[in-house]
Amino acid sequence: MTSAAPLRMIRLLANTFIVFFALGTFGSFIPAIPVLGEVGPLLTANLGPWITILSLVGAVLLFKRWRQTGKRRTLILAALAAFTTSGSATILTRQVAVARTNGVHIDPEQMLLAHSQTDANPPPVTAIYSEYDGQKLPLDIYRPTTGQTALTPIFVYIHGGGWGAETLKQREADYRWFATRGYLVISLEYSLSSEKRHTWNVAEPQLGCALAWIGANAARYGGDTSRLALWGESAGGNLVLNLAYQTNAGSLKPSCAGALPPVRATMALYPVVDPARMYRPVDPLLGPFGRMMGDNYTGGSPEQFPDRYKAIASDTHINAKAPPTLLVVPEEDHLVDPHAAYAFAAKARAAGIETRLIRMPYAEHAFDLRSGNVGNQMVRQVMLQFLEAHGLKH
Q1: Does pTM surpass 0.90?
Q2: Does 56 reside within a domain?
Q3: What b/e sequence results for 205-226 when a residue is b if at least 16 CB atoms lie within 10 Å of its CB, and e otherwise?
Q4: Do the beta carbons of residue 155 and residue 185 sit within 8 Å?
Q5: What three-state secondary structure class fits 60?
Q6: Among 141-155, 178-192, 212-226, whose mean pLDDT is lowest?
Q7: Are 230 and 267 in contact (CB under 8 A)?
Q8: Comparing C-alpha atoms, which of 162, 196, 160, 204 is closest to residue 316?
Q9: N or C: which end of the chain has fewer CB within 10 A?
């Protein structure tokens, strides 16, 4: 291998990334393109500012090289890098603007490093609230780290994962972020669905049992059960909406005895408000996952089990006693149709429910899961605002 070979390999790798990032940026602007429409927003969510910076550097170097060599291929690559720089910067600017419009300050350092911005905290306290099918059902309790002695608001999280994946550890950095701001954060586990175990009529009663456990025990950990809110994403968003609305209406039937504390607010990120609508999306990449989730959770299709799908649809449970609701929806979600959430928000408002809807442009499903990125910073801060605005200030 000659001394020039490593340089050629570096250039080939750099050129490959330029083309890849350019295609992803193109897909972000035209989300209907198969595969690229999903990949683009995911790249932006995880590498957004770095794509802009690296593409800018690449564009400058390639234009210099083109002026030296005059090669058409180099000019094309330089143009692609310039397009990626401009396009990714536009996406990032739009998303930061939405955050600012909603009263959120985006920390540039945190955005670049995508770190959790939380201090080291003690491990959570784990308790078992119930058992099902030979499986113990735990919950994790993250105590406030502010050193206060008065009872604090309770922020209960229910994880997503299509009702059949992930765990109560899903967003641990976020739990700790809220604990550092004076909240008793409790993350719940529930029985997951599978090809052979359909939990559409199991998960909600179980989680009702967890709420009853919280009502009876949270004060021992410093929690004020009169100031309780729920939050979750995706399938967890479906569960928190259904739980909150049924709890306040008195229609939830927990799987164990105990009084349910009222829910003061509920927050759902890209929630599956209409599982039947998710069952047959047109997206060729994520569509099979939506159908698998519906099959595993309910046992079949909406045509086979219309009553089951109606029972788990969130608009079934809309009522005048439902708590104030925050919805955060990525506009380019290929797994959960964002228009279902828009329709749900309109129905909730028509029923007299205070409903706030935030739409994130150029964003895909799970756009906020990377701790510290633009989406994560926005979601944390708007949820904190929503808690404080509804009497859940620490």
Answers
A1: yes
A2: yes
A3: bbbbbbbbbbbebbeebbbbbe
A4: yes
A5: helix
A6: 141-155
A7: yes
A8: 204
A9: N
